[in-house]
What we know:
Radius of gyration: 15 Å
CATH class: Alpha Beta
CATH superfamily: P-loop containing nucleotide triphosphate hydrolases
Largest sheet: 5 strands, parallel
Number of strands: 7
Order of helices and strands: EHEHEEHEEHHHEH
Number of domains: 1
Oligomer: single chain
Structural class: alpha/beta
CATH architecture: 3-Layer(aba) Sandwich
Strand order of the largest sheet: 2-5-1-6-7
Number of helices: 7
CATH topology: Rossmann fold
Distance between the termini: 36 Å
Amino acid sequence: MKIALTGTPGTGKTTVSKLFEEQGNKTVHLTEYVKEKGLGEQKEQFHVNVKEMREALKDEDFNVVEGHLSHHVPVDICIVLRTRPDLLRGRLEKRDYSAEKVEDNVESEALDVILSEAVQEQETVIEIDTTEKRPEEVFEEAKRKIEKGEKSYGNFDWTRFL
């Protein structure tokens, strides 16, 4: 089974993916992967060629692919991690992000951009709110939902937090 772990930057993808790795899942970390394979170019920001990324991953052996573009990779289950925008803003401000990049990501989260893309690209989507949860709780919730074969999304309205 192949799983995509996606979401806006700051929602917990990398941290939760490490818990999947600890359980023996071979994981592709997309940010590292696309840079290593030369699948993008640096302009003002790093831009990824999604078509080339998808093609390159066809030859990779993995169980989990994590990154904010992983919902573009053909998988069996796509998990979208979500975080309330006001809390997400605080997380992103602690990173070395410009104010514009912070606001772009907060707005993207509030408007369900990654969730919408995931629903268009994937057959099975699971949405998990990470706002008040420890990574271990998110991991356990993901495992439960995968085992039950749940599809669940569209449960959060973050627009009031803009």
